[in-house]
Amino acid sequence: MTPEQLRLLRRAVLDHALAEHRRVHLPLLHVGTPGGAHEVHPVRPDEPDDHALRVDIVAAMRSRAAVAPFVWLTRTGELIDQDVDLAWYAAARQAYAEAGAPLVFVVVNRHGWREPGSGTERHWRRLRRR
């Protein structure tokens, strides 16, 4: 990843840590630029478990976002692969492949981010504004 991408991913973690104070909350799917314009979709537990529907959601969010270089899923818990991560990662891969666009997909919690495809991750103990 480029230094600019790493800076934006750090921003996604910081924004999540500052905005979400509850210990348990719905996962949120974001498409766009961390710290900038982006679309948000709450991932509800009662949503249909349909891959094609998730692909359509990501594609629609991508088309509405002014610039869509990142897809990130904010959630609680440790940064280990969970079913929700892998389901949305697969949908984002397909939606971006159909659009012919490069994909950067990460899972974000209050302390860091993880890229499910490569296993690349970053963690901070005390993340602060620069």
Q: What this model shows, in words?
A:
The protein is an alpha+beta fold. The chain has one domain (3-123): Cytidine Deaminase, domain 2, CATH 3.40.140. 37% of the residues lie in helices and 20% in strands. Strands 2-1-3-4-5-6 form a 6-stranded mixed sheet, sandwiched between helices. Helix 2 packs across helix 3 (83-99). The radius of gyration is 14 Å and the shape is globular.
Brief description of this entry?
The protein has 130 residues and is of the alpha+beta class.
- How many domains in all? 1
Largest sheet: 6 strands, mixed
Helix and strand content put the structural class at alpha+beta
Would you give the CATH topology? Cytidine Deaminase, domain 2
CATH class: Alpha Beta
- The strand count comes to 6
Q: Over all CA atoms, what is the radius of gyration?
A: 14 Å
Our measurement of the CA-to-CA distance between the termini, rounded to an integer number of angstroms, reads 21 Å
CATH hierarchy: architecture: 3-Layer(aba) Sandwich
Give the overall shape: globular
Q: Summarize the amount of helix as a percent range.
A: 25-40%
Q: Give the strand content.
A: 15-25%
List the strand order in the largest sheet. Answer: 2-1-3-4-5-6
Please trace the helix and strand order, writing H or E for each element: HEEHEHEEE
Number of helices: 3
Q: Which residue ranges are poorly predicted, with pLDDT under 50 across at least 5 consecutive positions?
A: none
